[in-house]
Protein: alpha,alpha-trehalose-phosphate synthase (UDP-forming)
Organism: Vitis vinifera
Amino acid sequence: MPGNRYSFNSSTPRTRLERLLRERELRKFNQSFNLTNEVKDGNREGDPFGNDSANEGDNGGVPNEEEFLEGFTAGRTVGDAFERQDARPSKQRLLVVANRLPVSAVRKGEDSWQLEISVGGLVSALLGVKEFEARWIGWAGVNVPDEIGQKSLAKALAEKRCIPVFLDEEIVHQYYNGYCNNMLWPLFHYLGLPQEDRLATTRSFQSQFDAYKKANQMFADVVNEHYQNGDVVWCHDYHLMFLPKCLKEYNIEMKVGWFLHTPFPSSEIHRTLPSRSELLRSVLAADLVGFHTYDYARHFVSACTRILGLEGTPEGVEDQGKLTRVAAFPIGIDSDRFIRALELPQVQNHIKELKERFAGRKVDALYESTLFRNLERKAHLVNWETICVDKEKGGAWHKEANPLEQILAWQMDLEICLC
């Protein structure tokens, strides 16, 4: 069975000290680490935790938990830093590789660009990563066919520590709109493979899979161009399942991890994918494979066992002596950052504006009908409730239930249910 970060086989806190350290790191996840002051405190004579007897106060000379953890963390960090010959602390470089960059690019001229921070689950989850000197590699979300535009965009993104991968429109259509969103996403969410008529509208499966592999190789080429010895490469999501194999073919010593941000289906569902074996073996080229939950990790190991005939171990999957570690790493947002942002005046003003603008209004339901093939294209009777904004309570609530009724409005590939 796969390992779990909260099981005995992982980094589970086994002592009170380790537990307190983990709790402290979570509480201070978004705070910068002031190494200089902690080194000064950690080097005091007589007490490694900086508790001078003259400043004991009312605690009887017993250091409190926060002081203890500060000193312990400082000592550990400094000890690691002095392993370098120049005795200067440094952060390890982390290359985050995802389908999209955390910024969106809008072209303003031949060689000028406007960059805006993107909003998404992956961006929110990784904002709190402070232990590494990170570089983000991904598609900028815009087609840039000319060399001048590519150079100017790369220069602008470099200021944000981002590195672009330039994909043309045909690759994006086949790789992203086709294979990723038409095949992998529905399958991983237990919706099954698409209907033949829908598959035909986005070309054949083989052409989509070829574009998927080509796009992953393009990502790998950019990673290889910027990779330095000692870097850690962190690949993300179902868009880049082929990437670990491409990277290992370039450099077998490269440290590669792959994390899936969606469910991983059971082996019975995954075996319906025509490219099931090739994708599994590509992911297994990584050194570490991570999932949100233990069940998703278990499904992955089961698929490797039943489809590829490999051996599952408590640490992961073994193939001819090569072990790929598989584990669950529940990932969340940097909650402290959002809590602090809630108190900002501009946020409070925006909340007030939204409450006033949508007071008493009904909320429409929107869903993509083509993903749910069991729903026929006819008027569906659904029970719906009106959601209104309560100015006094400061939130939204279900006001009343209404008769079963619905009007369908069609726009492109979407069914808009106006309730």
In short: The CA atoms of residues 144 and 356 lie 41 Å apart.
